[in-house]
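Appendix B, record 7
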Amino acid sequence: YYFNEIFRPFILVIGDFMELMARDAWSHPENLRVPALTTSVQELTRGEGTAFEQKMIGYYGYPAAYYGLFKELSFAPLRYFPLAGIARAGFWDEAWFTEALSRSGYSPTAREALMDMYREQVLTSRQLPVMYQVKRLSREGFATMEEIKVHLEKAAAMVTLTETRLFAMELEQEFSQKEMAFDIIMRSFSRGIIPEGETRKGLSGLGIPVAMLDLHLMREKLGLLRRISIPTEAAAPALIGVEE
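Structure tokens (predicted):
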């Protein structure tokens, strides 16, 4: 009976059997995504998932004592790259990662190092949206280094992705408002609507430091000179405000 059964041509190769066991297909075929596969498994097991698994282990020539070993192996342990991908996506559960690494076969020292690395990857991933907005604020001088530090510390303390994304949206709104105000002030300055003193006051109100403010004004003045037709060098105006 044993040899007749094991040499049947339609017996699954052991790799396919283990793949389906890893998906818990034999015990819960209703969870499979392919209806035809669900039907096939249900017809094979006839509702006796565990008993069918044990019988199949016997077909492959292993005694019943090996069933627990095959069951453990069927959990398909995740190793470095899949876990790194999950961490980079920003998903984190300490208990889940600990259990996954315990099945990975890595040494305790390696598991500890990998856990530290995955924590950093999750933190970096969650802070990326905030980092992008913070860089925009910093590039235009709309935020001081102290304010940037506060933003990053706040983002690091957030637990969920939703919190981080909402905070990033708040920073994006802050940047958009300051950028719009900046454009209005600089356009008014370039058209002579407000003098340099008022321009400096308005830019300071946006939080722009003095050094960055001077650079913004210098850039605008140079742009104005390019638009002015100057017949001779003597006729060129001094490089000062538009009101002159």
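Remarks on this record: The chain has twelve helices and no strands. The chain has a mean pLDDT of 78.
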